[in-house]
Amino acid sequence: MRELVVDLFAGPGGWSHALHVLGVRDVGLEWDEWACKTRARAGQLTIRTDVAMYPVWPMVGRTHGFIASPPCQAWSMAGKRLGLVDQPLVHQAVADLAAGRDTRAKLLTACKDPRSLLAAEPMRYLHALHSVGEPEWIAMEEVPDVLPLWRQYAVILRGWGFSVWTGILNAADYGVPQTRKRAILIASQTRTAEPPPPTHAQAAEPEGLFGPGRAKWVSMAEALGWGATDRPVPTVCAGGGPGGGPEPFPSGARKTLTDARDRGTWKPPGPRPASQRTRLRPARSTTPACTCGKHPWAWSLRSNNQANATIRPVNEPAGTLFFGHRANECMWVAEPRSPDTASQGAAPESIRITATEAGILQSFPADYPWAGNKGQQFSQIGNAVPPLLAGHLLAPHLGKTLTRSDFTLAV
Fold first, then answer.
1. 86 close to 104: Cβ distance less than 8 angstroms
2. CB neighbours of 16 closer than 8 A, spacing ≥ 6?
């Protein structure tokens, strides 16, 4: 029986969590130790292996759905982007694998970044599965610069009888509190491949004769449970995670929250419903909600420490979150509400975003069981597929519908 959903480069479980909500389990192939431990904590099936070395034959004759999100480090703007230099070699590997020729070892020696060739690995699996008419559907995701490669895949898959769509989608258009753009490939042997209709827009669109309308993009404040008009107080906690790790905040940053407590300007959140974790919706964090009203400083999120970093106020979605080294740390920074704010005293110190907050901005539940120290958790979060986006991509293949209002399932 063809019932297996295979998830290559499964990471900490973005696709897997979406499938869980949709009532389906996948088998994830993943190499990273801490991502595998996170998946185990989340109850997800995982084979810890090098995707480039794992044999395909155990999947042949059993695979219904196929998912692949190759590592993006070689292509991402957060790194050296040597994948762009290696792109002709990756295209050659895909063409050779589609024809049944494995030239990976030879091509790998010429790659500037050995991770570049991992983007060709899905074709090795797809060629073997195609020999028995599988899979029924395919979903793949990567950074926008990989779109030309997805188009090459599309040409091959159409020749094999698939309907295929490729393009760039913005996660914010599907309720994720982050304007994360990704290159997507959707293919099917049983239905017309097309992107899911967006549920959100930068400005709310009312329902009309030609469509159901769209809600306004979900802001960071809304997703994190901070007051829409109040000055939020970022979470501050002691250093060290489950796997250890250094003190995560700059000297004196904890005083920001201490002062707020002393002024009586915050209150702890109420209990979180137990059912919330099973829903595909931006979960609320345990961050205190400030009730101090008007304040000269407003919190924004700075995406990294580079000169061109995206800075977004909390009443907007976050920019693309990426982590990996200190230059890519995301920080809560105080921005003046008006030009004369500086005369009213020094700004609060910047505070590093917590793993829980970062996970929520990727649309993971607030209580998602991240494993490892803070650096390992942030690396997993930055590389993950937002589960809410994944849910919208996968639901049509599984005969499900995600409702626009609350993202609970409607069958």
1. no
2. 7, 10, 25, 26, 28, 39, 42, 44
pLDDT(140) > 90 = yes
What span, in angstroms and rounded, lies between the C-alpha atoms of 181 and 321?
Answer: 11
- Beta strands of 288-330 (E only): which ranges? 289-290, 297-302, 311-313
Q: How far is residue 7's CA from residue 4's CA, in Å, rounded to a whole number?
A: 10
Phi then psi for 351, rounded to 5 degrees? -130, 130
Give the C-alpha separation, 143 to 120, whole Å. 14
Supply 367's token pair. 């209580």
Alpha helix segments (H runs only) across 227-312: 254-263
Q: Report in angstroms the alpha-carbon separations of 265 from 291, 292, 390.
A: 6, 5, 38
Q: What domains lie within the chain, and their CATH numbers?
A: 4-204+384-410 (3.40.50.150), 220-382 (no CATH)
**Measured between alpha carbons, how far is 313 from 153 in angstroms, rounded to an integer?**
38
pLDDT digits (tens, 9 = 90+) for 237-256: 433 333 333 333 333 333 44
Rounded CA-CA distance 48/69 in Å is: 16
On the CB side of 252, CA atoms within 13 Å amount to: 4
Instruction: Tell whether pTM > 0.85.
Output: no
